[in-house]
Amino acid sequence: MPKSKRNKQVTLSKTKKKGREHKEAVVNTMKQAIENHNSVYVFSFENMRNLKFKEFREKLKSTSRFFLGSNKVMQVCLGRSADDEIRPGLHKVSKLLRGDAGLLCTNLPKEEVERLFNEYEEYDFARTGSSVTEKVELKEGPLEQFTHEMEPFLRKQGMPVRLNKGVVELISDFVVCEEGKPLSPEAARILRLLGIQMATFRLCLICRWSPDDFELYIEGPDDSDIESA
């Protein structure tokens, strides 16, 4: 029997793709920001946390503008070569927009930007799949930080536990995670329960551009090509 078209399922979460108009709007906004600010920086980020980044961005709202998103769109805006760059030297900045990177347009003095980025460091719980920074091992015996209601949940995470007179007890030593290995979903949950934060959200400056200067903060394999461009 053929399926009725009336019973066709519709995904309510389906969203419209961002088209050409959206990209053009982003490019125009970036061009305006570059015109309105004294310098442009490329920065990289590690263990991005959207809420924490939003707080950092809000602190600089009066003097600066941040851009995160498609590196390709940002490269097109800046110009990929000396022939199509929107201001002299910006194609060098464009070449450094790779991987986890963003753009900062600001009127802050160079020293202030460097201080803010060098001092910025936020700790958070590591997510599944991230690289473990240290070995965490729990020794056999009572786990008094956990209530008796937690025992079934801990067992589901692979921990060899039991209830002993209402106290959660580890019946043998248990390695939660090993240094250098990817973090499993179970280990991530246990570390959160233990209050152990292994992820560090950092922002690192890569380069700085101003109308009369271009400066690299991090040397990479293609830096000679950038300098000669």
From TrEMBL:
Residues 1-20 have a biased composition (Basic residues). Its main location: cytoplasm. Residues 126-196 form the Large ribosomal subunit protein uL10-like insertion domain. It is found in: Cytoplasm; Nucleus, Nucleolus. Transmembrane segments: none annotated. It holds the Pfam family Ribosomal_L10. One of its GO terms (biological process) is nuclear-transcribed mRNA catabolic process. One of its GO terms (cellular component) is preribosome, large subunit precursor. The keyword Cytoplasm applies. The keyword Transport does not apply. Keywords: Cytoplasm, Nucleus, Ribosome biogenesis. GO terms for molecular function: RNA binding. Residues 1-22 are annotated as: Disordered. Associates with the pre-60S ribosomal particle. PANTHER family: MRNA TURNOVER PROTEIN 4 HOMOLOG, MRNA TURNOVER PROTEIN 4 MRTO4. Belongs to the universal ribosomal protein uL10 family. Ribosomal protein P0 is the functional equivalent of E.coli protein L10. Component of the ribosome assembly machinery. Nuclear paralog of the ribosomal protein P0, it binds pre-60S subunits at an early stage of assembly in the nucleolus, and is replaced by P0 in cytoplasmic pre-60S subunits and mature 80S ribosomes. This is Ribosome assembly factor mrt4. It comes from Quillaja saponaria.
